[in-house]
Amino acid sequence: MIIVMEKTATVENIQGVIDILTEHGFRAILHKGDVHTVIDALGDKTTLSPNRLEAMEGVNYVRLIRQPFRLASRDRKPEDTVIEFENGVKVGGESRPVFIAGPCSVENDYGCLLEVAQAAKELGCQFLRGGAFKPRTSPYDFDGLGEKALKYLAKAKEETGLLVVTELMDSSDLKMVCDYADVIQIGARNMQNFRLLKSVGKCNKPIILKRGPASSVQEFLLAAEHIMYNGNEKVILCERGIKSFDHTFTRNVLDISAIPVIKKLSHLPIIVDPSHGTGQRYLIEPMSKAGLAAGADGVMVEVHPNPAKALSDGKQSLSIEQFKEVFSRLNNMIDLLHLDKKQPALKGE
Amino acid sequence: MIIVMEKTATVENIQGVIDILTEHGFRAILHKGDVHTVIDALGDKTTLSPNRLEAMEGVNYVRLIRQPFRLASRDRKPEDTVIEFENGVKVGGESRPVFIAGPCSVENDYGCLLEVAQAAKELGCQFLRGGAFKPRTSPYDFDGLGEKALKYLAKAKEETGLLVVTELMDSSDLKMVCDYADVIQIGARNMQNFRLLKSVGKCNKPIILKRGPASSVQEFLLAAEHIMYNGNEKVILCERGIKSFDHTFTRNVLDISAIPVIKKLSHLPIIVDPSHGTGQRYLIEPMSKAGLAAGADGVMVEVHPNPAKALSDGKQSLSIEQFKEVFSRLNNMIDLLHLDKKQPALKGE
Amino acid sequence: MIIVMEKTATVENIQGVIDILTEHGFRAILHKGDVHTVIDALGDKTTLSPNRLEAMEGVNYVRLIRQPFRLASRDRKPEDTVIEFENGVKVGGESRPVFIAGPCSVENDYGCLLEVAQAAKELGCQFLRGGAFKPRTSPYDFDGLGEKALKYLAKAKEETGLLVVTELMDSSDLKMVCDYADVIQIGARNMQNFRLLKSVGKCNKPIILKRGPASSVQEFLLAAEHIMYNGNEKVILCERGIKSFDHTFTRNVLDISAIPVIKKLSHLPIIVDPSHGTGQRYLIEPMSKAGLAAGADGVMVEVHPNPAKALSDGKQSLSIEQFKEVFSRLNNMIDLLHLDKKQPALKGE
Amino acid sequence: MIIVMEKTATVENIQGVIDILTEHGFRAILHKGDVHTVIDALGDKTTLSPNRLEAMEGVNYVRLIRQPFRLASRDRKPEDTVIEFENGVKVGGESRPVFIAGPCSVENDYGCLLEVAQAAKELGCQFLRGGAFKPRTSPYDFDGLGEKALKYLAKAKEETGLLVVTELMDSSDLKMVCDYADVIQIGARNMQNFRLLKSVGKCNKPIILKRGPASSVQEFLLAAEHIMYNGNEKVILCERGIKSFDHTFTRNVLDISAIPVIKKLSHLPIIVDPSHGTGQRYLIEPMSKAGLAAGADGVMVEVHPNPAKALSDGKQSLSIEQFKEVFSRLNNMIDLLHLDKKQPALKGE
Prior knowledge:
Four copies of one chain form a homotetramer. Chain A has helices at about 10-25, 50-55, 110-125, 145-160, 175-180, 195-200, 215-230, 260-265, 275-280, 285-295, 320-340, and strands at about 1-5, 25-30, 35-40, 60-65, 85, 90, 100, 125-130, 165, 185, 205-210, 235-240, 270, 300. Chain A is of the alpha/beta class. In chain A, the strands form three sheets. Chain A has an eight-stranded parallel β-sheet with strand order 13-12-11-10-9-8-7-14. A four-stranded antiparallel β-sheet of chain A has the order 2-3-1-4. A two-stranded antiparallel sheet of chain A has the order 5-6. In chain A, a hairpin with a 4-residue loop joins strand 2 (about 25-30) and strand 3. In chain A, helix 3 packs parallel to helix 4. The radius of gyration of chain A is 23 Å and the shape is elongated. Chain A starts with a strand and ends in an 11-residue tail after the last helix. Residues about 340-349 of chain A have low confidence and may be disordered. Chains in contact: A-B, A-C, A-D, B-C, B-D, C-D. At the A-C interface, helix 8, helix 10 and helix 11 of A face helix 8, helix 10 and helix 11 of C.
């Protein structure tokens, strides 16, 4: 840490900072500038929070030099994390990008879910997604079928062999969701629901952690850190769009640059969700391509046999026929560009 | 609702929309423009989600005319909601703005909490705040003492008569928190934790609901709607700053205009939290004044006997002595401006 | 336009709106709902501003149905605009994506510029960029060599045949810049400098218009409309990143989705600038790929023989050697994906 | 400056940084941490740009310790700048907050302008505002009467004694505008039109500089620095709202906290514009109060004899009658709170 003192800091203020640093095992090195005094603190930040230093009299601000996440950091683990499933599917590293497809919510008609699952399977997708518990901005919207939906998903898995991804909204449902799902999703609005992070940190299923719509990359990686810190290192990050000043034509701004940024900072896999990221069906194809071109380890897409009748997110869902078209073009692009992964990337920075 | 069709919408597309509207009890009125066809839908939106219409073929977009929140809306209840406590304290309406003061987290030293509580009581504050469960961006930060903290708060209440405000992070703690607290706080990062909203909607304590750092006013009021819809109408809103592109000198941008905007849209009381809203001790006074001048029903301030030693949020906490100074100036301002509440405000809009 | 009246609007208020609409040649259709009255106005918006209607008593808000830009709109001109230069280079439509490379600012050492130009030429770039006039946030930073730089650019053009792109900051320099440049760039911070837009609207050089860092897509297209309205339809749009709440790891968020969104709304070509869009050298390659995959008509990259000595933007510039590497990989990707342009894209929406 | 090196920086990289620092007269102090090497650079930043250092190989990032603005900084000039006009009106420091009122644009009917001016004069306002040149997002909107409007303003000044504030959009109009105006306004969208800043830096009229809708406080003060650096220190800052993710109920978010933040960082006066800041007539009163309570040196309000007929910004303009009501309540509040200015504010930070 670097502690920059106020211009008006007294000798006592400075000594106060040095004392607390020493007390916590830091080595403090003092530099008196013409205007500001700066203290270099070498040691283990986990033992002393920069916030506490910032609150001391005479301290202007504190800068961290190391990133505050540790388990998620590439510094700790330079090689890519690859998450492998029983059926051999792999996510991350040099593996071929995966596809996660399915309706936003699982609805009453099982045939509907099965139709999507079968199409996804035939095309070569690896995962079936579907919401059993849905976070809804308004209490008047459909919020999911609960365990019935989980059962439908499990049945569709049985019939197709696809792995099941579904969202967990409350730790009290953890056991139930684990009974049916292969991957547990933490939704964007729960990215900083720390109790929920803690609870999935204690289970042994891989987690898809969606980026909060107003979360910085650092907050996103710290949320992953919460899960990892509690014991579960199988975290797949998912970029799904951030809030901006402009939502006339898209619901969110899909932050494609977060993909290579996170690849540099962390060893965790990261996938992209162009359905939520844009909220527009016609943007799924170009934004999937953009995400894959930038290095994403997978794509999550909403597919519904009849988007116009979907109980949620119909506007951003592809019909099965549309999905087939889009999928074949994305697949083709992966074939062409996948080679790149083995090519050396630009060194530097 | 107004449904604007695509330029390319077919006669079948248009009929499809009219059919679904009629089926759900809406009256549909069709207008063919030179470029676009527009359908007016008169009826009860709760029976048919605009999202579902937006997903239909040929639909460009759907505009709502009424606000999507209902219980929270001033249209339903034109008079201000006033929340009254057993000891006669009132929040909202024409009541004098209230003060909620206390440390960010309750810490190990009970004397410390009591000292703040006693000072707050002497000055004339109505509420003591203190975190027992703390949401922390990093898993390496102090996250609260749990039930021990709740016991400390209850003890301080016994000694001072102040009402206790504390945050609930998970529905599994609800009963415990209710045993000790007079008001339950839902933190900003949990504003869209819909399970938590549902659970506090079923208890009978007043709730302080903090605005999420990237939540629109509409999402904020819909979160209140979740609580009210589940049975608890005693919701106090709290503006605590939103994320912006600039965080060099403040942690968030305290959205003062949200106060008069919400006063116009809703009957619920709204208070302001300048400590989290700015993250800077020296901004607490001017931003409290700004909030009160704009119509806030109360102010929530972090106070700590020794901010430099606070385990959380020291930089934005006032010392007891500073709080005394600030409080006396705010109180003076309330005396002077309180009269305004009874003066007629500008009509129109 | 759809005019939604206040709940409290009087009969006179409503008549007032109908009168003004009729007076301006609109057909007004009245719908009385249970709560709100809505007026449909069919006619030509250019004759009556929605702002004027919004200011009338009893009006709640006005919604436009058509986009406010016209000349830039794909509704007016469904086929892509292709801008063709004397030497046969084309930008837009089915043309191969172009490359614009060069240093942020032209500096004193001509050899330096020539070196970049020659490398760019050899690789197959079409344009040389370089700033003669530099907008600088701080008055203490280097702000360009002025006409001397323009002369250097012209000389480098003579030696390599590359087309020259340079920024115009003030209409008083227009003639001078036109004497040397093939394409005039309007910088992001001048996107809404309407006098400047007007002046370049009256010249006959193609314009690269950069998106303002906080401009919506609609404001961006309206800025293009200003140029086109003044007579110059040769506008190339350039996405270069928008401001967000997070700038820890990137300077801006490159809004890749703006590319397919604008392709849908407008017939104008759009290129991408990953150097300014991210501010990080290592992100140029993945974000160029993302932009191209999403449909960009070109890429603009900062290249400097010695980024560490660049007088501006060194951190986001590639060295010549790095550029060669990156360029060859991008070029390879264009070869592979260019075919896609002729493949049918997903219909719908 | 503090230069934080990459983990992978070589001895040569480090020496390179030290060499360039020494060459530019800095004292470089080296600290080798376990992970990162950090270099303290003591010296005058104007001689060496941090951007140049950031571009060097092995450099991770550079942190400034001093603010990059100097002339605008309170460090350089601890006492408030007070701008005094010939007629004795003062802006800034301990002076009573001033009022600037008038229509958005000056329109064809002079009587209309005079009516506003006379009302403003009678109430006790000091300034008349009115646009002669209007920046318009769309080329189809009314963009001002030009010199005719300036003549009207001068005439209204003659009849009322009010000082005239009007916007300059292009340096080519500077002489003309100076002939008629007492204060020149630089609009929000021109805040980083550096040529325009330079030109008004060379005139001797006071300048009102409006904050760009996406400009940070630092960029805002650096824009003022441009004017001051060119010779004109009479700059009045104006907070007028920033862009956020939410514009359902307000056009912008009026950043009230910018007022006390800027008061701390700079000696320049700062006023508040609630008309543009919110875009809503009913918010003018509460947000003017909030601004004044937070320490603003003045308020700028749009007033029009018939807002419903205004050619621009009618929705956010007060009628004369409404202005009288609002003004009297604001004036009353100033009387009550003005005393505060002489009371000691909270020390610290």
